[in-house]
């Protein structure tokens, strides 16, 4: 038995990042215990899909490289339904579409269904004997994270065991986990692992809600609707997936309807539909777009500001999504350090929640896994040395991308419409 096999890694959160971390540690021979507060999202009886944030995501080279670093064949399997997006398609008020390519050499980001990706990663975990996944269990406490200065030799051994206390979200029963050697917190923006680390040491921490919410809407596949099409195939990389007939808009672009103070975006799904997200100030959601607004007022707002999108969506689907879907808040979290010695560390949104305008939250979380594993391997899985080095080397990059994400909101909702921007882009060849 290798020394890795005798160690158990406990991971809290079976979201996108927690699942990739579990695969990475399992591939290195560790026993992995993965805990998730929600039910298994593959269970057909569960209505958890509606609780998930954003239906599709943009996965970039950063995320793909990280998935490949864990297992190339696994990456091919979980990424098989990608829809490549080679640039932005900016829609003006008159329905004119302007293509802004991302790069000169066919560089692209890719749309993928969040739930499908999460389910595929869970399926990959099911194939491994050294991984145990426990759903419906919420972490409430980690004992013994702090080693007090009065620790003596007698209780030092005890203080090595960091017990995890969970509560069954269905049964309300308590579960104490004592066999874990090291804890990884991948439990999202409101991380309990982070709270536990904060109690054990002096963590610098900031959390900022922005004054904007998001709301998801949907443009159906063309065969679901009699609505007309706004398919623009003038870009060189016009169609790569499916058939032109299936999509009401060109699928190989990230569509933006920028309106300065707010914007609508749309990403293609492989079934021909588009998931649209409206990002707008809270003041708009409190007045014109309040839940109490009349159907006529809601339709009028969208027809005035996003006529070409509403033509494809139809009033009924617009109103159904508007009434049914939650308004999501957007939060930024920065903190440091990410670890307590070699006992526990946070990754993904637990360590660096960012607003979604750069499309990098999950991609960065995946990169956390790649970076952490590379450092740990370099130190032959000496967790204390590896975790400390990870915090030291990673925190500047993560702080920078949280800030860049915020700045890109201004670029997407406003700057892309300015003449200066368009001139600059055309000089650059985009
Ligand atoms: P999460 O996805 O939040 O998963 C955390 C998991 O931990 C959850 O399953 C949760 O149930 C579980 N959990 C929480 N607390 C506990 C507990 N106490 N015990 C046990 N389990 C627990 N990123 C991109 O890269 N590209 C995009 O295009 C993109 N678009 C986005 C669009 C929107 C509108 C939003 C809101 C975000 C977007 N993101 C995007 C960001 C991305 O969604 C997150 O960065 C990503 O989901 C983070 O993954 P995670 O696994 O760290 O956290």
TrEMBL record:
Listed name of the protein: Kynurenine 3-monooxygenase
Family: Belongs to the aromatic-ring hydroxylase family. KMO subfamily.
Tagged with keyword rRNA-binding: no
Domain spans labelled FAD-binding: 338-380
PANTHER family in UniProt: KYNURENINE 3-MONOOXYGENASE
Catalytic activity: L-kynurenine + NADPH + O2 + H(+) = 3-hydroxy-L-kynurenine + NADP(+) + H2O
Keywords, sorted A to Z: FAD, Flavoprotein, Membrane, Mitochondrion, Mitochondrion outer membrane, Monooxygenase, NADP, Oxidoreductase, Pyridine nucleotide biosynthesis
GO biological process, any: anthranilate metabolic process
Originating organism: Sugiyamaella lignohabitans
GO cellular component, one term: mitochondrial outer membrane
Intracellular or extracellular location(s): Mitochondrion outer membrane
A GO molecular function held by the record: kynurenine 3-monooxygenase activity
Gene3D superfamilies: FAD/NAD(P)-binding domain
Enzyme Commission code(s) on record: 1.14.13.9
Cofactor(s) for this UniProt protein: FAD
Pathway where this protein functions: Cofactor biosynthesis; NAD(+) biosynthesis; quinolinate from L-kynurenine: step 1/3
InterPro entries in the cross-refs: FAD-bd (IPR002938), FAD/NAD-bd_sf (IPR036188), Kynurenine_monooxygenase (IPR027545)
Enzyme class: oxidoreductase
Function text: Catalyzes the hydroxylation of L-kynurenine (L-Kyn) to form 3-hydroxy-L-kynurenine (L-3OHKyn). Required for synthesis of quinolinic acid.
């Amino acid at each position: 038995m290798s020394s890795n096999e005798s160690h158990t890694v406990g991971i809290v959160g079976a979201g996108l990042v927690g699942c990739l971390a579990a695969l990475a540690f399992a591939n290195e021979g560790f026993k992995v215990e993965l805990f998730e507060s929600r039910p298994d999202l593959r269970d057909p009886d569960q209505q958890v899909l509606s609780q998930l944030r954003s239906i599709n995501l943009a996965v970039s080279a950063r995320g793909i490289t990280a998935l490949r670093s864990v297992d190339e064949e696994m990456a091919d399997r979980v990424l098989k339904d990608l829809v490549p997006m080679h640039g932005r398609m900016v829609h003006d008020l008159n329905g004119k579409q302007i293509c802004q390519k991302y790069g000169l050499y066919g560089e692209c980001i890719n749309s993928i269904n969040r739930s499908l990706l999460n389910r595929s990663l869970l399926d990959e975990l099911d194939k491994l004997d050294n991984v145990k996944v426990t759903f419906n269990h919420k972490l409430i406490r980690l004992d013994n994270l702090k080693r007090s200065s009065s620790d003596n030799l007698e209780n030092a051994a005890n203080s090595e065991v960091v017990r995890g206390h969970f509560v069954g979200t269905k049964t309300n029963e308590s579960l104490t986990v004592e066999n874990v050697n090291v804890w990884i917190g991948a439990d999202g923006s409101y991380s309990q692992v982070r709270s536990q680390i904060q109690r054990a040491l002096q963590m610098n921490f900031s959390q900022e809600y922005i004054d904007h919410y998001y709301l998801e809407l949907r443009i159906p596949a063309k065969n679901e609707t009699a609505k007309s099409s706004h398919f623009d195939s003038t870009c060189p990389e016009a169609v790569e997936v499916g058939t032109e007939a299936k999509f009401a808009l060109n699928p190989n672009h990230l569509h933006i309807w920028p309106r300065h103070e707010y914007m609508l975006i749309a990403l293609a799904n492989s079934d021909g539909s588009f998931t649209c997200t409206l990002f707008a100030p809270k003041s708009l959601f409190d007045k014109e777009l309040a839940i109490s607004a009349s159907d006529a007022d809601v339709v009028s707002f969208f027809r005035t500001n996003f006529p070409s999108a509403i033509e494809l969506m139809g009033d009924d689907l617009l109103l159904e999504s508007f009434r049914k879907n939650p308004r999501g808040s957007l939060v930024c979290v920065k903190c440091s350090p990410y670890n307590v010695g070699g006992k526990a560390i946070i990754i993904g949104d637990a360590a660096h929640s960012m607003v979604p305008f750069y499309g990098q939250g999950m991609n960065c979380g995946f990169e956390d896994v790649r970076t952490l594993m590379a450092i740990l391997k370099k130190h032959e899985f000496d967790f204390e040395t590896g975790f400390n080095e990870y915090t030291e080397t990673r925190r500047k990059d993560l702080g920078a991308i949280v800030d860049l994400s915020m700045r890109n909101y201004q670029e997407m909702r406003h700057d892309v419409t300015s003449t200066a921007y368009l001139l600059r882009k055309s000089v650059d060849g985009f």
